[in-house]
Amino acid sequence: MKAIVKLSQEEMLKARLNQPRVSLEELRRQEDRLRQTSEAFHKGGSKETSKSGRGSRAAG
Amino acid sequence: MRLTAFERGGEEHRILRGPERYWKATYPGKAGFTVIATESGPTLTHSLPREYLRRLWLSNHLFGDDIRLEGCAAEEGGLVIVTSQPTIVGDAPTADEMIAFFETRHFSLIPNFHAGYRGSLSFYRALDQMAVFDVHPANLPRDQTGVLLPIDVVVVQADDELAAQLEALLN
Fold first, then answer.
1. Number of domains in chain A
2. Is A19 contained in some domain?
3. Which residue in the set A27, A38, A51 is minimally distant from B137, CB to CB?
4. Angle (CA) B149 B152 B158, round 5°
5. H or E element in which residue B117 lies
6. Residue A16's domain spans which residues?
7. A20 assigned to some structural domain
8. B166 confidence band (pLDDT: 50, 70, 90)
9. CB distance A48–B44 less than 8 Å?
10. ipTM
11. CB of B162 within 8 A of CB of B131?
12. What is the pLDDT of residues B39-98, one digit of tens each?
């Protein structure tokens, strides 16, 4: 399937609000598939979520 | 709705799946991540609640999302922000498709800069100093009609200091 990348914000909103309904179990499987693809995309999957810039300020 | 029904969904949120909408609850005292300018360059860091809410608003504005602030809660550890957004049914896009998505919106790929997962993509648009981080397949699914729909990217309107650092990375 060719990806559609040139939609307006309004068209993207319409697409979001017209998703098919699937079971929660299917949503869980979808998350697993996407997560596996992202991990492969990361080539190792290690994270670098540095929080050194601000420390605990976000807790306020 | 009870927060005990939410399960860990990643470093930023707990989630509750629904057939029409996904619910997200931040961890107590946290409000996701953002990117700020530091002496060593752009750095991913904890977001302030107002920055987090601004990020969600920008996602609605830029990418046609329908993120709604459902409420706030107080848990041991601090404030929790609860939101919901439409459930997307889809699969993973390719890297070329993700880059095309942003380039059609006049964003430039920032080479060799990753904020979030190692290897995630980052983009910057100088005309309005808008930046998008943590772009990877799970955050930009392609729905069943082929439409790419960002769901959890980190959107930041850069201040002048961050903008200068990001523009330097483009050159």
1. 1
2. yes
3. A38
4. 105
5. strand B116-117
6. 8-40
7. yes
8. very high
9. yes
10. 0.91
11. yes
12. 999 999 999 999 999 999 999 999 999 999 999 999 999 999 999 999 999 999 999 999
